[in-house]
Backbone:
């Protein structure tokens, strides 16, 4: 019986890719005032970013309920006895805890391995993709879990930020906090390390930030898995992919858009990539 | 001062005589410092060669006081050390090398005569040349070299004693200074002799004064060492240190702020009076209400004055010694996990804040016309909590001092030779306290190479630079250190500089306005520039720097 892979919507996995690989994506919640949406349901990305930029108050996000995980595991348990459930860094969200709690109410006939990926967005997405591919080839729960835990150490991500404002207001700023006092406008480049948002570099202008992300990506080639992400400007992502094709024509690359949860913390005009080496 | 010098020809000098001859030379230099400062190729207010050499000599003499009188060799070595620690500016660094060579050439004997003097001057010249990677003739190097050659030639003369030898040396030094414009085009074009060369001549001349017993003529003048702003210089910690006042005894007094309300208040009268009572003076308002800000040791007298012409409101007095203590603590507050610290040289409260906010651990106050000494930089290097330090000099005249500091510290220190505040800022933006030293230097160097620097200041005299006719008082604009624009309109000068940079390729301009510019004035200039260059992001920040109305970083 094939191991089933579960992740959450902060993986930003494109819907078709998740479907093709049979990955179940559990949605987080996004709240605009009293309006609550499940991530990816009821609102398109364009609608979300429009609302993000025009609403005076920032949206809030919340982890899926343990009940949602329990139901998800129970449903999958009718098809398999082994589930690997890979989630956003526990330092950034309560999702991992919710998944652990959801697993507790299950019976013994299905094993669920819950993994804290220590990363997010397509860093997490690529781990889920890799796990699904391994599962398809017949790897069992322990093998898939081992692979994922090992690969989690080899994920590298970098993203431009138009400003630190969204990260700060959302309380996810981590060690990039050190840059907050800057009296000049700077464009930070951030990453995620050991489950936390970390500052990578800073430059003065958007175009230099983009150029740096291109350089940083080039240094990761060739990668086992590669994804390019953006929040509001698909053209910028397209240029980065073109760059990849020119440097490494054989390199497969996924494109993903920051969903509402990531968008809440990253804001508009972000260009990012995740590489699995 | 008691006449201690030899009125008669002297053949041998001991330690005491050595110290006294340089003492007289330092006083002679002090008397001439302003004149030397004025020998400036560029009509920008950076004429500080006289000041730098004088401050270097003061440190030299402070150290010379330590060894006992009986050994010339010991005193010469002490002087060399003092010069090294006190060296500031390009000329000061070369002077310190001259003193080092001088000590080496004088030998290990307790006394010296003409032959040792000649060899000391030769070694001095050699050390000076060795210190410069690309020695240029027509500078102080040439003057010390010519002086040394004259000494060597003079030794072969009949009955040569130290006084007559130095007479020959000084005559040749004078001629050598006069020749400097023939050797260096920039001097000829500017119609001046080399300032550093003149300084060397003055020091040698001072020694001769001593030997001839003419020191009465070398009178102490009051400290008119700064041609631009005495207050600014006197507040420099290094300047205070040069006067041997222990750092902990420095007094900052009280930051006093109040509003005077009355009728027919005379702004100029208020400003004039307040300026006589302290520094950092700010007087703004109209004839009905005037806001006063001053740093003074006697806030009471400010209040008395205010009450005498009107009523006092919103009075605020803060003890700045307390503030300073906090300030020092804050400056030393390490960035989290700072394996590498950055020491930056900046003048102006606003710019200091900006540099700190971008991760500078220690700001050394200084810049144009206020070059910090090697000792100031070392103090900063010692004060930061890490063993690895990057220095951002942010001025071409401070780079040599910074490089000298590297040679005397035990810490692993590297100088990133930033020549302007914008370069320093750009480098700092590229700084990452978690990356290693080499990577940081590489990235920071790359970052600062991408920035263009504009500096707008005021011409201190008439001049012609190429096709530019500059009048004293004109606003002159420098692009990457070269004078490109001159005119009577400040905003126009800024605009022309930006055009010269070619703003089409630039994305962001950060405009730091100086202590002479009002915030409103800067903001409206920012709006004008924004209209002119709509594609350029414009940031207007209070820099508070002296001399330069605007420093603009363009990326």
Residues:
């Amino acid at each position: 019986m094939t191991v089933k892979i579960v992740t959450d919507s902060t993986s930003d996995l494109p819907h078709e890719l998740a479907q093709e690989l049979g990955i179940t994506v559990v949605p987080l919640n996004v709240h605009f005032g009293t309006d609550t949406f499940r991530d990816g349901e009821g609102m398109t990305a364009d609608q979300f970013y429009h609302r993000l930029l025009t609403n005076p108050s920032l949206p809030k996000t919340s982890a899926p309920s343990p009940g949602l995980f329990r139901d998800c595991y129970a449903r999958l348990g009718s098809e398999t006895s082994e589930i690997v459930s890979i989630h956003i860094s526990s330092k950034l969200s309560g999702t991992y805890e919710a998944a652990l709690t959801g697993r507790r109410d299950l019976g013994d006939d299905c094993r669920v391995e819950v993994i804290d990926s220590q990363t997010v967005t397509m860093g997490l997405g690529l781990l889920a993709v890799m796990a699904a591919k391994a599962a398809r080839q017949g790897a069992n729960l322990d093998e898939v879990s081992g692979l994922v835990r090992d690969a989690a150490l080899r994920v590298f991500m970098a993203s431009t930020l138009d400003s630190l404002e969204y990260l700060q207001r959302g309380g996810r700023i981590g060690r990039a906090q050190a840059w907050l006092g800057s009296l000049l406008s700077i464009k930070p480049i951030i990453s995620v390390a050991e489950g936390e948002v970390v500052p990578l570099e800073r430059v003065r202008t958007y175009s230099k930030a983009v150029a740096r992300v291109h350089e940083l990506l080039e240094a990761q080639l060739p990668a086992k898995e590669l994804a390019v992400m953006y929040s509001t400007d698909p053209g910028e992502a397209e240029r980065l992919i073109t760059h990849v094709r020119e440097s490494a024509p054989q390199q497969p690359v996924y494109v993903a858009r920051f969903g509402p949860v990531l968008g809440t913390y990253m804001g508009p005009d972000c260009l990012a990539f995740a590489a699995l080496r | 001062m008691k006449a201690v010098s030899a009125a008669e020809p002297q053949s041998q000098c001991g330690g005491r005589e050595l110290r006294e001859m340089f003492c007289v030379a330092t006083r002679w230099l002090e008397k001439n410092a302003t004149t030397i400062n004025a020998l400036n190729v560029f009509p920008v207010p950076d004429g500080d060669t006289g000041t730098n050499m004088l401050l270097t000599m003061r440190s030299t003499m402070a150290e010379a006081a330590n060894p006992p009188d009986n050994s010339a060799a010991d005193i010469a070595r002490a002087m060399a050390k003092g010069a090294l620690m006190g060296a500031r500016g390009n000329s000061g660094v070369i002077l310190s090398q001259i003193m080092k060579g001088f000590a080496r050439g004088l030998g290990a004997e307790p006394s010296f005569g003409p032959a040792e003097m000649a060899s000391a001057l030769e070694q001095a010249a050699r050390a000076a040349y060795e210190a410069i990677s690309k020695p240029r003739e027509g500078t102080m190097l040439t003057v010390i070299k010519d002086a040394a050659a004259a000494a060597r030639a003079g030794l072969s003369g009949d009955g040569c004693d130290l006084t007559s030898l130095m007479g020959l040396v000084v005559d040749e030094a004078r001629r050598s200074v006069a020749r400097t414009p023939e050797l260096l085009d920039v001097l000829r074009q500017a119609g001046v002799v080399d300032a550093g060369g003149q300084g060397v001549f003055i020091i040698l001349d001072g020694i001769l004064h001593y030997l001839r017993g003419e020191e009465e003529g070398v009178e102490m003048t009051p400290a008119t060492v700064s041609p631009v702003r005495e207050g600014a210089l006197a507040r420099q910690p290094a300047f205070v240190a040069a006067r041997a006042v222990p750092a902990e005894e420095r007094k900052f007094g009280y930051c006093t702020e109040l509003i005077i309300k009355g009728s027919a208040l005379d702004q100029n009268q208020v400003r004039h009076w307040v300026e006589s009572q302290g520094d950092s003076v700010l007087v703004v308002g109209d004839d009905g209400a005037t806001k006063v800000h001053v740093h003074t040791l006697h806030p009471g007298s400010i209040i008395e004055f205010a009450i005498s012409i009107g009523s006092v409101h919103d009075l605020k007095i803060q003890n700045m010694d307390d503030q300073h203590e906090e300030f020092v603590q804050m400056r030393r507050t390490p960035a989290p996990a700072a394996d590498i610290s950055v020491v930056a040289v900046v003048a102006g409260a606003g710019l200091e804040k900006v540099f700190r906010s971008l991760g500078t651990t220690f700001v050394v106050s200084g810049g144009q016309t206020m070059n910090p000494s090697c000792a100031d930089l070392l103090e900063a290097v010692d004060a930061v909590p890490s063993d690895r330090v990057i220095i951002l000099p942010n001025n071409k005249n401070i780079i040599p001092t910074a490089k000298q500091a590297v040679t005397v510290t035990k810490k692993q220190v590297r100088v990133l030779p930033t020549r302007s505040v914008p370069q320093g800022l750009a480098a700092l933006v590229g700084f990452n306290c978690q990356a290693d030293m080499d990577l940081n230097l590489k990235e920071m160097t790359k970052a600062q190479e991408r920035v263009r620097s504009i500096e707008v200041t005021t011409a201190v005299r008439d001049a012609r630079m190429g096709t530019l006719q500059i009048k004293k008082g004109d606003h002159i604009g420098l692009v990457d250190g070269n004078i490109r624009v001159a005119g009577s309109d400040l905003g126009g000068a800024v605009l022309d500089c930006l055009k010269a940079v070619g703003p089409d390729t630039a994305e962001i301009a950060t405009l730091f306005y100086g202590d002479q510019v009002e915030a409103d004035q800067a903001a409206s200039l920012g709006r004008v520039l924004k209209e002119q260059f709509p594609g350029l992001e414009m940031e207007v920040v209070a820099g508070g720097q002296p001399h330069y109305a605007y420093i603009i970083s363009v990326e």
Remarks:
- The mean pLDDT of chain B is 82.
- The radius of gyration of chain B is 25 Å.
- Chain B has four domains: 15-228, 247-323, 333-449, 452-554.
